[in-house]
Structures are given as structure tokens and as C-alpha cells.
């Protein structure tokens, strides 16, 4: 049972960069939709539902990769296998760290919105929009850059860094 739980709550390493960027694109659109809902004079329930789904998605991906994230499952099981884009493998731990940052921002945005701090919530979602745009359209993962800085500063153990390079990159079509 312990092995099953350990496997279930693991994050893939390596990660297909194409899948990561497409998940970021989905998050980008979800964030824009949630921001629009916050701007409209609608009942607060609508943004709360979307922010809850956004937060759940990040929590699911942080805890177990794409296994229980509807967006990641859509991308990895349906979209990526049906498009003709060459796989590019990258280290998993920095991507997991980036998902954790997304979880923190989306979770805070949800909590702040619930407690009527709509403007601060909108700022956090706007920051997520910027960074998911950078990831999905330009391939720039800010969370990955922060992860690398934290390793250089010794705030993340070197063993995690070794796990990043503990695979042989391969490209498939």
C-alpha cells in the first residue's frame, strides 16, 4: 500500500515540455475567464467556482502530476498524442515547483476573493496570467528559474538538482 501511495503521489521526471506548455495555456485561459467573471457584476459564486477549479488543478498537479488533473489528463492523453509536435523532455522537479507557486497564487486568490478582497485576488490572477502566458507562448518558466536560483542558494537540496539530471533526454516524433 505504501508503494502505491508513493507512486501515486509522485511527479513525472522528465516532463514533456509540450504538455507543460499546453497545460499552461489552459491555465492561462481559465485565469482570463476567472478575471472576467470577477470584473462582471455577477454573483460571487461564479468566480468562486472557477477559482476553486483552478486551485484544485494546481493541487492535483503538485500532488501527483497529471494523474488527477482534468486539464493535464486532457492535454497528456488526448491533445498531445493527436498533434504532430516533437516531444521535448525537461526536468520534472522545477516544473513541480512552478505548479506549487501556481497553487499558492490561485489558493490565495480564492481565499481573498471569498473574504471580499476582490482587487487583491484580481492582482494575483493577473500575475498568473502573465506567467502562464510566458510559459505557454514563449516557453519561459519563471518558477523553474526561481527553482534554479534556490538550488544555487542552497535552499533546495542538491539531491533534488541531481534528480533533475537523472534521466537521459530523448526526442521522439
List the helices and strands and how they pair.
Blueprint: H1 2-8, E1 15-16, H2 17-39, H3 45-64, H4 70-79, E2 89-90, H5 92-114, H6 118-138, H7 142-152, H8 158-164
Antiparallel strand pairs: 1-2
Helix pairs in contact: 2-3, 2-4, 2-6, 3-5, 5-6, 5-7
Summarize the structure.
By secondary structure, this protein is an all-alpha fold.
Provide a descriptive summary of the structure in words:
This protein has a two-stranded antiparallel sheet with strand order 1-2. The chain has one domain (2-164). It is built from 8 helices and 2 strands. The N and C termini lie far apart (36 Å). The chain is 71% helix and 2% strand. It is mostly helical.
The helix/strand order is HEHHHEHHHH
Structural class, by secondary structure, is: mainly alpha
DSSP helix fraction: over 70%
What is the terminal separation in angstroms? 36 Å
Total count of helical runs of at least 4 residues: 8
Poorly predicted ranges = 167-173
Mean pLDDT: 90
Amino acid at each position: 500500500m505504501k508503494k502505491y501511495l508513493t507512486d501515486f503521489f509522485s511527479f513525472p521526471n522528465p516532463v514533456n515540455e509540450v504538455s507543460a506548455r499546453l497545460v499552461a495555456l489552459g491555465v492561462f485561459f481559465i485565469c482570463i475567464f476567472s478575471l472576467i467573471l470577477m470584473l462582471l457584476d455577477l454573483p460571487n459564486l461564479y468566480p468562486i467556482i472557477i477559482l476553486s477549479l483552478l486551485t484544485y488543478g494546481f493541487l492535483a498537479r503538485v500532488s501527483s502530476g497529471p494523474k488527477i488533473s482534468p486539464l493535464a489528463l486532457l492535454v497528456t492523453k488526448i491533445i498531445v498524442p493527436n498533434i504532430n509536435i516533437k516531444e521535448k523532455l525537461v526536468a520534472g522537479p522545477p516544473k513541480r515547483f512552478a505548479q506549487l507557486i501556481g497553487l499558492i497564487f490561485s489558493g490565495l486568490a480564492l481565499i481573498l476573493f471569498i473574504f471580499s478582497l476582490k482587487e487583491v485576488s484580481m492582482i494575483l490572477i493577473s500575475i498568473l496570467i502573465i506567467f502562464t502566458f510566458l510559459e505557454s507562448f514563449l516557453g519561459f518558466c519563471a518558477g523553474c528559474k526561481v527553482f534554479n536560483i534556490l538550488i544555487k542558494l542552497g535552499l533546495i537540496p542538491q539531491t533534488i538538482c541531481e534528480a533533475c539530471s537523472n534521466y537521459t533526454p530523448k526526442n521522439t516524433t
